[in-house]
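Problem: given the chain below (298 residues), write out its structure.
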Amino acid sequence: MPARHFDRELARAARRAADLRQSEVGAALGVSNSAVANWEAGHSAPDPETLPAYAAALRRGVDELFPRAGLPDLTDLRCDAGLYRAQTPAVIGTKSAGPVAGAERGERRLKDHYVPLLAARYGVSEAELRRAQERSIAAAEGEKRGGVEQGTPAAAPGRPPETLAEKINFIFERSYPGPHGPPSDAEITTEVNGHLGKEILTEKDFRDLRTGATQTAAPGVLSALAEVVGVSEMYFQSDEAVAAQVYEGLKLLAAARQGAIGRVKARGLGPQGMSPRMMALVTELAAELAQKEAEERK
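Solution.
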């Protein structure tokens, strides 16, 4: 579960910047000032359900003060609503929290008539709640497979995404803000297959890519996915593959300077060569460079 990160030093600095005493923060949260002191000292940590109210008490946004790496699952949505699991029966009209607990553990999906009730209480759309539910289920499936997947893989704050799963989730997190959030696995699968013109990718295939259960995709899938989410095909390639193409491009530019571009274009470069799109781009750059140098010599 990509739980929010509690930084005691940042929380203390925010309290002091707001010119608040520990007792005032405690009163706003319904806890003692000693509890706040223990949080700031690192002796304990606040419940995740209290973090939204904690941030509000310090006059800061919860995402700013207590950031989360990755997309939320069902537990995260409940905590962001400041709701304890024991309080959910009153929301869905049941005698126990069993339906919510089971869904959060990824054991079973919520009944359809619970979804709008929880979505309204959590302050999210029904589609966003269902996507969070799928993340909870995917995490549980990963644990059953021996810990292959532990929640939704995401790059650490300040570090660019490296693995394929991190790159997919980074795009989903940054490119689909707002109440609706990113498309579901099923929606992405349909779009990708539409670009491919045939049924190659299954919903499980894409979920495995997104959660890191698998690291490779069938031929053409990543190109189609790049088209769907609006990024360059190179985004999903490994750093080594991108570096190789850049290297070959530099070799081509060097060949242009030496007047050997025609020979290089005829035979290709390197053991793997370059994609037609990359070849065309680099050739265009080389031509522009040659023209510029010719003009400078006049």
